[in-house]
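FAQ: What does the model actually see?

It sees only this:
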Amino acid sequence: MKQVNDAHEMEYDVLPEVTATAPGRFHLIGEHSWFFKDKTLSMAVNLPVYVAVSRRNDSTLKFYFPQLNERKRANITSLKFRREDRWANAVKSIIYGYTSGGFDLGGMNVTVYSDILPSAGFGITTAIKAASAVALKKLFQVPCADVEMLQAIERGNKLFIGTGNYCADNFAALYAKEGTLIITDYAHNTYDYVKYPFDKKILLTDARVPRISVWSEDSIHEPENALLLGELRERKENVYGGWQYENNVTDVNEVLSVVSEDTRRKLLCIMREHNDVIEARDALEKADFSKFARAVNHSHESMRELYEISCPEIDWILKRVGELEPNLEQLRNPVTCGRITGKGFGRCLYAFIRGSDEETFRSKLAEYERIFGFHPSCYEVVPSAGARLVK
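And it is asked to produce this:
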Protein backbone atom coordinates (compact mmCIF):
# COMPACT_ATOMS: atom_id res chain seq x y z
CA MET A 1 0.00 0.00 0.00
CA LYS A 2 2.88 2.37 0.66
CA GLN A 3 4.13 1.81 -2.87
CA VAL A 4 0.64 2.43 -4.27
CA ASN A 5 0.19 5.59 -2.21
CA ASP A 6 3.65 6.87 -3.10
CA ALA A 7 3.10 6.26 -6.82
CA HIS A 8 -0.24 8.09 -6.77
CA GLU A 9 1.08 11.01 -4.73
CA MET A 10 4.20 11.39 -6.86
CA GLU A 11 2.10 11.48 -10.03
CA TYR A 12 -0.80 13.68 -8.89
CA ASP A 13 0.54 15.52 -5.78
CA VAL A 14 -2.31 14.08 -3.68
CA LEU A 15 -2.80 10.84 -1.80
CA PRO A 16 -5.51 8.50 -3.08
CA GLU A 17 -8.87 8.87 -1.38
CA VAL A 18 -9.87 5.27 -2.10
CA THR A 19 -7.90 2.16 -3.02
CA ALA A 20 -9.32 -1.20 -4.04
CA THR A 21 -7.66 -4.46 -4.94
CA ALA A 22 -8.75 -7.44 -7.01
CA PRO A 23 -7.05 -10.81 -7.58
CA GLY A 24 -5.53 -12.33 -10.65
CA ARG A 25 -7.23 -15.47 -11.88
CA PHE A 26 -6.80 -18.56 -13.98
CA HIS A 27 -9.34 -21.07 -15.25
CA LEU A 28 -8.56 -24.66 -14.45
CA ILE A 29 -11.08 -26.32 -16.77
CA GLY A 30 -13.96 -25.23 -18.99
CA GLU A 31 -13.12 -21.68 -20.04
CA HIS A 32 -13.92 -22.40 -23.69
CA SER A 33 -17.42 -23.77 -23.12
CA TRP A 34 -19.30 -20.63 -22.00
CA PHE A 35 -21.17 -20.32 -25.33
CA PHE A 36 -22.75 -23.75 -24.79
CA LYS A 37 -23.99 -22.84 -21.27
CA ASP A 38 -21.66 -25.31 -19.58
CA LYS A 39 -19.55 -24.88 -16.43
CA THR A 40 -16.13 -23.39 -15.70
CA LEU A 41 -13.82 -24.11 -12.75
CA SER A 42 -11.69 -21.09 -11.79
CA MET A 43 -9.29 -19.91 -9.10
CA ALA A 44 -8.69 -16.33 -7.97
CA VAL A 45 -5.05 -16.02 -6.93
CA ASN A 46 -2.72 -13.77 -4.98
CA LEU A 47 -1.47 -11.76 -7.97
CA PRO A 48 -3.17 -8.53 -6.87
CA VAL A 49 -4.05 -5.46 -8.89
CA TYR A 50 -4.54 -2.18 -7.02
CA VAL A 51 -6.58 0.74 -8.30
CA ALA A 52 -6.12 4.00 -6.38
CA VAL A 53 -8.35 6.99 -7.13
CA SER A 54 -8.79 10.61 -6.10
CA ARG A 55 -11.33 13.20 -7.23
CA ARG A 56 -10.56 16.19 -9.44
CA ASN A 57 -12.31 19.55 -9.66
CA ASP A 58 -12.86 19.22 -13.40
CA SER A 59 -14.12 16.56 -15.81
CA THR A 60 -10.66 15.30 -16.77
CA LEU A 61 -9.70 11.65 -16.36
CA LYS A 62 -6.03 10.86 -15.83
CA PHE A 63 -4.64 7.34 -15.73
CA TYR A 64 -1.19 6.20 -14.61
CA PHE A 65 0.41 2.72 -14.65
CA PRO A 66 3.80 3.02 -12.89
CA GLN A 67 5.15 -0.42 -13.87
CA LEU A 68 4.65 0.50 -17.53
CA ASN A 69 5.54 4.16 -16.97
CA GLU A 70 2.51 5.00 -19.08
CA ARG A 71 0.00 7.81 -18.75
CA LYS A 72 -3.35 8.14 -20.49
CA ARG A 73 -5.90 10.92 -20.51
CA ALA A 74 -9.60 11.33 -21.32
CA ASN A 75 -12.64 13.40 -20.43
CA ILE A 76 -15.74 12.06 -18.76
CA THR A 77 -18.00 14.11 -21.05
CA SER A 78 -16.56 12.56 -24.22
CA LEU A 79 -15.50 9.09 -23.19
CA LYS A 80 -14.36 6.94 -26.12
CA PHE A 81 -12.66 3.61 -26.64
CA ARG A 82 -9.21 4.15 -28.10
CA ARG A 83 -7.12 1.15 -29.03
CA GLU A 84 -3.90 2.95 -28.11
CA ASP A 85 -5.17 3.43 -24.54
CA ARG A 86 -4.89 -0.33 -23.96
CA TRP A 87 -5.02 -0.96 -20.17
CA ALA A 88 -6.73 2.40 -19.51
CA ASN A 89 -9.71 1.20 -21.57
CA ALA A 90 -10.42 -1.27 -18.75
CA VAL A 91 -10.91 1.60 -16.28
CA LYS A 92 -12.79 3.69 -18.84
CA SER A 93 -15.18 0.80 -19.45
CA ILE A 94 -16.17 0.86 -15.78
CA ILE A 95 -16.69 4.63 -15.86
CA TYR A 96 -18.89 4.11 -18.92
CA GLY A 97 -20.69 1.22 -17.22
CA TYR A 98 -21.67 3.41 -14.29
CA THR A 99 -22.58 6.57 -16.21
CA SER A 100 -24.57 4.68 -18.86
CA GLY A 101 -26.55 3.18 -16.01
CA GLY A 102 -27.59 6.60 -14.75
CA PHE A 103 -24.99 7.01 -11.99
CA ASP A 104 -23.06 10.29 -11.65
CA LEU A 105 -19.26 10.32 -11.59
CA GLY A 106 -16.78 13.17 -11.94
CA GLY A 107 -13.23 13.80 -13.01
CA MET A 108 -10.60 11.68 -11.31
CA ASN A 109 -6.98 10.64 -11.04
CA VAL A 110 -6.43 6.90 -11.34
CA THR A 111 -3.35 4.81 -10.57
CA VAL A 112 -3.30 1.18 -11.70
CA TYR A 113 -0.63 -0.75 -9.82
CA SER A 114 0.27 -4.34 -10.71
CA ASP A 115 3.54 -6.22 -10.81
CA ILE A 116 1.96 -8.63 -13.33
CA LEU A 117 1.23 -6.86 -16.61
CA PRO A 118 -2.08 -7.34 -18.47
CA SER A 119 -0.26 -8.94 -21.40
CA ALA A 120 0.54 -11.97 -19.24
CA GLY A 121 -3.08 -13.03 -18.99
CA PHE A 122 -3.90 -14.42 -15.53
CA GLY A 123 -7.05 -12.27 -15.42
CA ILE A 124 -5.18 -9.01 -14.83
CA THR A 125 -7.38 -6.92 -17.14
CA THR A 126 -10.50 -8.27 -15.45
CA ALA A 127 -8.92 -7.50 -12.07
CA ILE A 128 -8.39 -3.89 -13.17
CA LYS A 129 -12.09 -3.66 -13.99
CA ALA A 130 -13.22 -5.27 -10.74
CA ALA A 131 -10.96 -3.11 -8.56
CA SER A 132 -12.05 0.00 -10.49
CA ALA A 133 -15.72 -0.85 -10.00
CA VAL A 134 -15.26 -1.21 -6.23
CA ALA A 135 -13.09 1.91 -5.92
CA LEU A 136 -15.36 4.19 -7.97
CA LYS A 137 -18.46 2.98 -6.17
CA LYS A 138 -16.88 4.08 -2.89
CA LEU A 139 -15.27 7.30 -4.16
CA PHE A 140 -18.47 8.70 -5.68
CA GLN A 141 -20.86 6.99 -3.24
CA VAL A 142 -22.63 5.24 -6.10
CA PRO A 143 -25.97 3.99 -4.70
CA CYS A 144 -25.94 0.53 -6.23
CA ALA A 145 -26.07 -3.04 -5.00
CA ASP A 146 -23.44 -5.62 -5.93
CA VAL A 147 -25.61 -6.95 -8.75
CA GLU A 148 -25.81 -3.44 -10.25
CA MET A 149 -22.03 -3.12 -10.00
CA LEU A 150 -21.72 -6.39 -11.91
CA GLN A 151 -24.15 -5.01 -14.52
CA ALA A 152 -21.96 -1.91 -14.86
CA ILE A 153 -18.97 -4.13 -15.63
CA GLU A 154 -21.02 -6.08 -18.16
CA ARG A 155 -22.25 -2.88 -19.88
CA GLY A 156 -18.69 -1.64 -20.12
CA ASN A 157 -17.52 -4.91 -21.65
CA LYS A 158 -20.33 -5.15 -24.17
CA LEU A 159 -21.06 -1.54 -25.13
CA PHE A 160 -17.75 0.25 -24.54
CA ILE A 161 -15.05 -2.32 -25.29
CA GLY A 162 -17.21 -4.47 -27.56
CA THR A 163 -16.34 -7.84 -26.04
CA GLY A 164 -18.53 -10.58 -24.66
CA ASN A 165 -19.27 -11.05 -20.99
CA TYR A 166 -17.47 -14.07 -19.59
CA CYS A 167 -19.21 -14.59 -16.28
CA ALA A 168 -16.47 -16.86 -14.93
CA ASP A 169 -13.99 -13.97 -15.26
CA ASN A 170 -16.22 -11.50 -13.42
CA PHE A 171 -17.41 -13.92 -10.74
CA ALA A 172 -13.86 -14.96 -9.85
CA ALA A 173 -12.61 -11.36 -9.70
CA LEU A 174 -15.54 -10.10 -7.60
CA TYR A 175 -16.81 -12.95 -5.47
CA ALA A 176 -13.98 -15.44 -4.87
CA LYS A 177 -13.25 -16.54 -1.31
CA GLU A 178 -9.89 -17.32 0.20
CA GLY A 179 -9.08 -21.02 0.14
CA THR A 180 -11.78 -21.90 -2.39
CA LEU A 181 -12.30 -22.41 -6.09
CA ILE A 182 -15.31 -21.00 -7.89
CA ILE A 183 -17.58 -22.80 -10.37
CA THR A 184 -19.58 -20.79 -12.88
CA ASP A 185 -22.78 -22.26 -14.30
CA TYR A 186 -23.43 -20.42 -17.55
CA ALA A 187 -26.84 -22.03 -17.96
CA HIS A 188 -28.14 -20.16 -14.92
CA ASN A 189 -25.63 -17.28 -14.75
CA THR A 190 -24.73 -18.34 -11.22
CA TYR A 191 -21.63 -19.37 -9.29
CA ASP A 192 -20.79 -21.80 -6.50
CA TYR A 193 -17.80 -22.51 -4.26
CA VAL A 194 -15.77 -25.61 -3.57
CA LYS A 195 -13.04 -25.73 -0.92
CA TYR A 196 -9.45 -26.33 -2.00
CA PRO A 197 -8.20 -29.23 0.18
CA PHE A 198 -4.77 -30.18 -1.18
CA ASP A 199 -1.30 -29.60 0.25
CA LYS A 200 0.33 -28.89 -3.11
CA LYS A 201 2.38 -26.10 -4.64
CA ILE A 202 0.40 -24.28 -7.32
CA LEU A 203 2.69 -22.75 -9.92
CA LEU A 204 1.47 -20.46 -12.70
CA THR A 205 3.93 -20.16 -15.57
CA ASP A 206 3.96 -17.69 -18.41
CA ALA A 207 5.95 -19.59 -21.02
CA ARG A 208 6.28 -16.39 -23.10
CA VAL A 209 5.33 -18.19 -26.29
CA PRO A 210 4.02 -15.71 -28.88
CA ARG A 211 0.26 -16.09 -29.20
CA ILE A 212 -0.77 -17.20 -32.64
CA SER A 213 -4.44 -17.84 -33.43
CA VAL A 214 -4.47 -20.81 -35.76
CA TRP A 215 -8.27 -20.79 -36.02
CA SER A 216 -11.15 -18.61 -34.94
CA GLU A 217 -12.97 -19.88 -31.86
CA ASP A 218 -16.10 -18.11 -33.11
CA SER A 219 -16.27 -20.72 -35.87
CA ILE A 220 -17.89 -23.21 -33.50
CA HIS A 221 -20.10 -20.63 -31.77
CA GLU A 222 -23.08 -21.35 -33.97
CA PRO A 223 -26.64 -21.92 -32.70
CA GLU A 224 -26.89 -25.22 -34.58
CA ASN A 225 -23.83 -26.53 -32.71
CA ALA A 226 -25.40 -25.56 -29.39
CA LEU A 227 -28.56 -27.44 -30.41
CA LEU A 228 -26.53 -30.55 -31.23
CA LEU A 229 -24.88 -30.54 -27.82
CA GLY A 230 -28.28 -29.96 -26.24
CA GLU A 231 -29.40 -33.28 -27.72
CA LEU A 232 -26.52 -35.01 -25.96
CA ARG A 233 -27.31 -33.80 -22.45
CA GLU A 234 -28.57 -36.36 -19.96
CA ARG A 235 -30.52 -35.44 -16.84
CA LYS A 236 -28.94 -37.07 -13.80
CA GLU A 237 -30.04 -36.19 -10.29
CA ASN A 238 -26.90 -37.54 -8.64
CA VAL A 239 -24.57 -35.35 -10.77
CA TYR A 240 -23.56 -31.84 -9.77
CA GLY A 241 -25.76 -29.41 -11.69
CA GLY A 242 -28.28 -32.12 -12.55
CA TRP A 243 -26.92 -33.23 -15.92
CA GLN A 244 -23.92 -34.43 -17.88
CA TYR A 245 -23.12 -35.20 -21.49
CA GLU A 246 -23.91 -38.56 -23.04
CA ASN A 247 -20.92 -40.91 -23.06
CA ASN A 248 -22.28 -43.53 -25.43
CA VAL A 249 -19.91 -43.34 -28.39
CA THR A 250 -22.49 -44.57 -30.92
CA ASP A 251 -25.08 -41.98 -29.88
CA VAL A 252 -22.50 -39.17 -29.82
CA ASN A 253 -21.15 -40.03 -33.27
CA GLU A 254 -24.65 -40.22 -34.70
CA VAL A 255 -25.65 -36.76 -33.40
CA LEU A 256 -22.39 -35.15 -34.48
CA SER A 257 -22.26 -36.84 -37.89
CA VAL A 258 -23.83 -33.76 -39.52
CA VAL A 259 -20.83 -31.49 -38.86
CA SER A 260 -17.33 -31.44 -40.30
CA GLU A 261 -14.60 -33.52 -38.70
CA ASP A 262 -12.87 -30.41 -37.36
CA THR A 263 -16.08 -29.13 -35.74
CA ARG A 264 -16.88 -32.60 -34.40
CA ARG A 265 -13.53 -32.79 -32.61
CA LYS A 266 -13.99 -29.39 -31.01
CA LEU A 267 -17.53 -30.18 -29.88
CA LEU A 268 -16.28 -33.45 -28.41
CA CYS A 269 -13.74 -31.39 -26.51
CA ILE A 270 -16.48 -29.15 -25.10
CA MET A 271 -18.35 -32.25 -23.91
CA ARG A 272 -15.24 -33.68 -22.29
CA GLU A 273 -14.49 -30.36 -20.62
CA HIS A 274 -17.86 -30.21 -18.91
CA ASN A 275 -17.49 -33.73 -17.60
CA ASP A 276 -13.93 -32.94 -16.44
CA VAL A 277 -15.27 -29.98 -14.44
CA ILE A 278 -17.74 -32.34 -12.74
CA GLU A 279 -15.00 -34.88 -12.03
CA ALA A 280 -12.62 -32.23 -10.68
CA ARG A 281 -15.29 -30.78 -8.39
CA ASP A 282 -16.15 -34.23 -7.04
CA ALA A 283 -12.46 -34.86 -6.39
CA LEU A 284 -12.13 -31.55 -4.54
CA GLU A 285 -15.17 -32.41 -2.42
CA LYS A 286 -13.63 -35.78 -1.52
CA ALA A 287 -10.06 -34.41 -1.17
CA ASP A 288 -8.98 -37.01 -3.75
CA PHE A 289 -5.96 -35.50 -5.50
CA SER A 290 -5.40 -38.41 -7.87
CA LYS A 291 -8.92 -38.04 -9.28
CA PHE A 292 -8.50 -34.27 -9.50
CA ALA A 293 -5.17 -34.68 -11.30
CA ARG A 294 -6.64 -37.14 -13.79
CA ALA A 295 -9.39 -34.64 -14.65
CA VAL A 296 -6.86 -31.83 -15.12
CA ASN A 297 -4.49 -33.93 -17.23
CA HIS A 298 -7.39 -35.27 -19.28
CA SER A 299 -8.53 -31.70 -19.91
CA HIS A 300 -5.09 -30.74 -21.23
CA GLU A 301 -5.12 -33.74 -23.55
CA SER A 302 -8.45 -32.48 -24.90
CA MET A 303 -7.05 -28.97 -25.37
CA ARG A 304 -4.07 -30.40 -27.24
CA GLU A 305 -5.64 -33.16 -29.32
CA LEU A 306 -9.20 -31.96 -29.95
CA TYR A 307 -9.35 -28.21 -29.41
CA GLU A 308 -5.86 -27.73 -30.87
CA ILE A 309 -4.78 -24.73 -28.81
CA SER A 310 -1.65 -26.07 -27.14
CA CYS A 311 1.86 -25.83 -28.57
CA PRO A 312 5.14 -27.79 -28.36
CA GLU A 313 6.58 -25.45 -25.72
CA ILE A 314 3.64 -25.82 -23.34
CA ASP A 315 3.49 -29.57 -23.94
CA TRP A 316 7.23 -29.88 -23.22
CA ILE A 317 6.87 -28.23 -19.80
CA LEU A 318 3.81 -30.27 -18.87
CA LYS A 319 5.56 -33.46 -19.84
CA ARG A 320 8.30 -32.53 -17.37
CA VAL A 321 5.59 -32.03 -14.73
CA GLY A 322 4.41 -35.59 -15.32
CA GLU A 323 7.97 -36.86 -15.04
CA LEU A 324 8.41 -35.44 -11.53
CA GLU A 325 7.15 -38.84 -10.33
CA PRO A 326 8.92 -41.49 -12.43
CA ASN A 327 6.91 -44.44 -11.05
CA LEU A 328 4.66 -45.63 -13.85
CA GLU A 329 2.02 -46.59 -11.30
CA GLN A 330 1.50 -42.87 -10.80
CA LEU A 331 -0.12 -42.67 -14.21
CA ARG A 332 -3.18 -44.12 -12.49
CA ASN A 333 -2.72 -42.20 -9.24
CA PRO A 334 -0.78 -39.08 -10.24
CA VAL A 335 0.86 -36.85 -7.64
CA THR A 336 1.20 -33.93 -10.08
CA CYS A 337 -0.92 -32.41 -12.81
CA GLY A 338 -1.03 -29.42 -15.13
CA ARG A 339 -2.79 -27.82 -18.04
CA ILE A 340 -2.60 -24.97 -20.54
CA THR A 341 -4.42 -21.82 -19.44
CA GLY A 342 -4.39 -18.09 -19.97
CA LYS A 343 -5.38 -15.63 -22.63
CA GLY A 344 -5.38 -16.67 -26.26
CA PHE A 345 -3.98 -19.76 -27.92
CA GLY A 346 -1.03 -20.98 -25.92
CA ARG A 347 1.51 -19.28 -23.69
CA CYS A 348 0.52 -20.03 -20.06
CA LEU A 349 0.10 -23.13 -17.93
CA TYR A 350 -0.52 -24.15 -14.36
CA ALA A 351 0.93 -27.06 -12.40
CA PHE A 352 0.06 -28.69 -9.07
CA ILE A 353 3.19 -30.32 -7.66
CA ARG A 354 4.65 -31.51 -4.37
CA GLY A 355 6.70 -28.98 -2.43
CA SER A 356 9.73 -31.26 -2.70
CA ASP A 357 9.51 -31.07 -6.51
CA GLU A 358 9.61 -27.28 -6.84
CA GLU A 359 13.39 -27.00 -7.25
CA THR A 360 13.37 -29.69 -9.95
CA PHE A 361 10.47 -28.01 -11.74
CA ARG A 362 12.23 -24.65 -11.79
CA SER A 363 15.39 -26.30 -13.11
CA LYS A 364 13.30 -27.70 -15.96
CA LEU A 365 12.08 -24.16 -16.72
CA ALA A 366 15.73 -23.10 -17.01
CA GLU A 367 16.28 -26.00 -19.40
CA TYR A 368 13.17 -24.94 -21.33
CA GLU A 369 14.67 -21.47 -21.79
CA ARG A 370 17.90 -22.94 -23.16
CA ILE A 371 16.03 -25.18 -25.59
CA PHE A 372 13.28 -22.86 -26.84
CA GLY A 373 14.76 -19.41 -26.24
CA PHE A 374 11.80 -18.01 -24.30
CA HIS A 375 12.30 -16.61 -20.79
CA PRO A 376 9.43 -17.93 -18.64
CA SER A 377 7.97 -16.30 -15.54
CA CYS A 378 6.75 -18.55 -12.75
CA TYR A 379 4.58 -17.57 -9.78
CA GLU A 380 3.58 -19.59 -6.74
CA VAL A 381 -0.08 -18.85 -6.04
CA VAL A 382 -2.83 -19.71 -3.57
CA PRO A 383 -6.64 -19.38 -3.77
CA SER A 384 -7.49 -15.81 -2.77
CA ALA A 385 -10.41 -13.49 -2.06
CA GLY A 386 -12.21 -11.30 -4.58
CA ALA A 387 -12.26 -7.52 -5.05
CA ARG A 388 -12.40 -5.37 -1.93
CA LEU A 389 -11.49 -1.97 -0.52
CA VAL A 390 -8.07 -1.58 1.08
CA LYS A 391 -7.39 0.81 3.94
